[in-house]
Amino acid sequence: MLTITPISAFTDNYIWCIEDRENSKALIVDPGQADPVSEYLRQEGLELDTILVTHHHPDHTGGIAELRQRHSPERVTGPADSPFDGITNPVHPGDTVVWGGLEFSVIAVPGHTLDHIAFYTPNRVNGAPVLFCGDTLFACGCGKVFEGTAAQMRESLASLRELPDSTRVFCGHEYTLANLKFARSWLPDDSGLADYEAECKQMRDRGEPTLPSTMEREKKLNPFLRWDDPDVIQAAKAYGEQKGLKVSSDDEVFAAVRRGKDSF
User: What do you get for the CA distance between the two ends of the chain, in Å?
Assistant: First the structure.
């Protein structure tokens, strides 16, 4: 039986660990720091044999060199076209990564960075399909567009929006309350957002992560996935009028929401 555990890093990063307890094996996703991972593996008696990388940013790759020295994982799997040079098993969109009975599809999700990929498996872990999406999709948010374009980012999110509602979304940061604060400023009458914010505040007060989310929840609540929702379109057009922006197409609606969050 496999389980997925968050390992906290920096101030708000999550490094995800898939644990195969039967074989004492671990797969680690986006280890920005080595020490928290090594300590967790030591405590749990696990052997690191695979690292997955979603994109090249140091807060997702900074611990890999040290982890390779300490634990000698069999492979570091990540995007073939990445500026990060520590990948030993480069993969392309459409490839399959197999681990512990799971088969992950590699999905191209450029926008936050040009090399960004996501890993999705329909195989159920704790009863649900799994998505590791790095900094492309957050709970009620999405990553900043650093290297790509808004249109590119929306297209990437559109590909993730097609995944089953039951998919559990494992992203790279605990940004949920900040994202909800922005979402509610744009959609103050959305009762679903208000209820979710109250739920997440209680979770954080208990010291619990707000992740993973689900694709069903993100489709309903996340303004960055709702470029075709009348309420989000109306809010984006109002913002566009204030800023002198044309807002009519799906890409322009998404770009307005992203620009609004960037300056929030």
Answer: 43
Q: Which one is catalytic: 30, 49, 55, 116?
A: 55
- Cα separation, 62 vs 60, in Å, equals 6
57-107 residue pLDDT tens = 999 999 999 999 999 999 999 999 999 999 999 999 999 999 999 999 999
User: What does the angle CA 247 – CA 253 – CA 256 come to, to the nearest 5 degrees?
Assistant: 85
Q: Is 142 strand, coil or helix?
A: strand
Confirm whether 112 is a catalytic residue: yes
Residue 218 burial class via C-beta count within 10 angstroms: exposed 0-12, middle 13-18, buried 19 and up: buried
Is omega for the bond preceding 212 within 30 degrees of 0, making it cis? yes
Helix (H) or strand (E) run with residue 219 in it: helix 215-221
Is 92 labeled as catalytic in the residue annotation?
no
Closest by CA to 119, choosing from 26, 165, 55, 66, is 55
The strand pairing partners of 26, in sequence order, are: 19, 48
Does 116 qualify as catalytic in the annotation?
Answer: no
Candidate list 20, 30, 71, 112, residue with the active-site label: 112
Is the CB of residue 87 less than 8 Å from the CB of residue 79? yes
Mean pLDDT of 121-128: 94
With bands split at pLDDT 50, 70 and 90, how would you rate the model's confidence at 40?
very high
DSSP collapsed to 3 states, 106-149: EEECCCCCCCCEEEEEEEEECCEEEEEEECCEECCEECCCCCCC
Note the Cα 48 to chain centre separation in Å: 22
Q: What predicted TM-score, i.e. pTM, was given to this entire model? A: 0.97
Task: Round to whole Å and give the CA distance between 253 and 117.
Answer: 24
